[in-house]
Here is the input.
Amino acid sequence: MITVSSVLAIPAHALSSLLRGRLESPENVAPSCQLGDEGCFTLLGVSVVGAVTISPEQLSFSYDKQLAKPTQMSDLVIIADRITQAYRDEGYFLSQAVVDRQALESGIATITVIEGHISQVEFDGTRTDLASPIMKGFTDAPIAHLPDLDRRLARIKAIRGMSVTSRIRPDPEDPSRHELVLTTDFDPVEGYAGLSNRGSERVGPLQAYGGVAFNSVLADRDQFRLNVFTTPVDPGEYARVSANYRYSFQPGDSLIFGAATALSQDGHNPNSPEIGGESLSLWMKYERPLIQRRTHRLYASVQFDAAHLENDWTSGGGYRDELRVARVALRGLQTDDGSKTYFFVELSSGLDILGASGESVEFRSRYDADASFTKLYAKTSYYHDIGKYFGIYALLWGQVSDGPLLSAEEFSVGGPVMGRGYGYGEISGDEGIAGLLELRAGFSPESDLISFAQGYVSYDAAMVWNDTPTGVRQKDMESAALGLRINILDRLSAGIELAKPLTRTPYDEDNRDWQQFFQMSVTY
Here is the structure.
């Protein structure tokens, strides 16, 4: 339906409250012409034609302060641009306002709004049958709404192994009609492999890891993934294998089942005479997207874990931890021009069910802890471009708990992400906080081999503590690092890093000298 409305002057209180914050009248400006000049006339009214989704009354902000003033065609173009921007601000990205060719002696100007819509969706590429059901009904909308398109494209991209690019072709016969072309690329098998020297001297230091994923193997939109992490020189020192199965429902929800097992020859704590240990964990997770937009996304999840962990000591003792944990979490991502913000918040509760561990001075990883607990864990990161070549990255972790925790649930810091001058799990405690600041300088060289190169310097600090009957026990550490990262042929990445402990001597070293690390990985 097309509506025509001639509006002379609309008071501010008549505007819709939905648009009041965005559709504001322009400031008073001096007339752009003088009556008597060629093409100059007194604007007595504006007829807005074709505005349905946003009513002509709501659009009167664009011209109400121009009424009864000398006006020329360039002023009408500015009014049309304001109307176009009003549509864009509400997500109607294919709509625009144009100034009709007209005789203006009457003082009444006509502006036509073209409410653009998608009249047809075409698919090209592989496994388009996975994407086409998600776009069903999109062409029924009378006007194209960017948030709706964002949600649908995000659901297509959420299909494991699927990537999609989009382009829009206008109809040369009808400016309101557009064709959306989606090109899909589906990889039935994906994988990755990597090597680093982040392990301790006792069990490495070389570490190898890899994984393979099979997409849409048992049903459309599912994935089976297998991951391996080990010390390649002697896999018997440490090896971990995990597998999970994910099924994604049409609305975008996902259900994941997973299992993992790990074996170590001498355990993870070098300060105790351990022989080795093993662990087995099972989990089930359900995740739902709450917001799916091109610039921001929000997901909620619920999860249940069951874990068995044990370590044996040379003295003949050891510990056995049985954990049954329920978790609820929120994670979100927001991207703007040159910046990205990520956050994750998780509330965990240890349940006294299905054989969960009670307190035991001799048979638990913590003598004063059991499997019943409540803790809150959060992490957030922020990146922002500084000019063309530089950027700043910040990372913050934290955890609080209602009491002592078994070792698997403690807040642990150390390794390539946080605590770069130290080994994995250098310090741990029931509660803690850690932060990292990294300055980056990178560019894309004009090379067929290297697609991106980045240098960086970083500083990190962390503190953990346990609230015990005898007082608060606290540990802290700081470290600095500098390094280089490169991407080769968009599939191979490599990095070298120099890291220095600043305030604490690493547990497997006798000094705080600079340490050298490398990492390389490939995806396929």
